[in-house]
Write a structure and sequence with these properties.
This protein has helices at about 10-20, 30, 35-55, 60-85, 90-115. The chain has about 120 residues and is mainly α. The protein has a single domain (about 5-115), classed as de novo design (two linked rop proteins) (Up-down Bundle), CATH 1.20.1440.60. Helix 1 (about 10-20) runs antiparallel to helix 5 (about 90-115), helix 3 runs antiparallel to helix 4 (about 60-85) and helix 4 runs antiparallel to helix 5 (about 90-115). The radius of gyration is 15 Å and the shape is elongated. The two termini are about 25 Å apart.
Length: about 120
């Protein structure tokens, strides 16, 4: 059995969510229960998917990780939209995006390592 906290991508995603959560109180009410909630749910789905993948057999991991990759890309789009509509400022957006880029690279590497091509 894998200890999920020993998986670097899980640690990075966990830390992302903690950072993301802290900003919740600064979000305007009209955005908090719409776009912010959707983004927060995706961040949790990413954590859940990574944890799930860590328990799967090698041949089952790719499908789970591809779903996580899709969720990550949707989260990126929502963050960009939140920046554009001024729900979050550029500084927060840049901080979030840097972490998501790292997670994306780690995820791509994990998926690539599972594909025999």
């Amino acid at each position: 059995m894998t200890d999920e906290f020993d998986i670097p991508i899980f640690k990075k995603s966990y830390d992302f969510y903690k950072m993301f959560y802290v900003f919740r109180t600064t979000i305007p009410k009209q955005d908090k229960y719409a776009i912010w909630q959707k983004a927060e749910n995706l961040a949790i789905d990413i954590l859940q998917g990574l944890l799930c993948a860590s328990y799967k057999q090698k041949f089952e991991k790719v499908a789970v990780l591809e779903k996580v990759s899709l969720d990550l890309n949707i989260l990126r789009v929502l963050l960009r939209l939140m920046k554009d509509i001024k729900t979050i400022d550029n500084k927060k957006y840049t901080a979030f995006e840097e972490i998501l880029d790292e997670i994306g690279k780690m995820l791509g590497g994990w998926i690539k390592s599972l594909n025999p091509r």
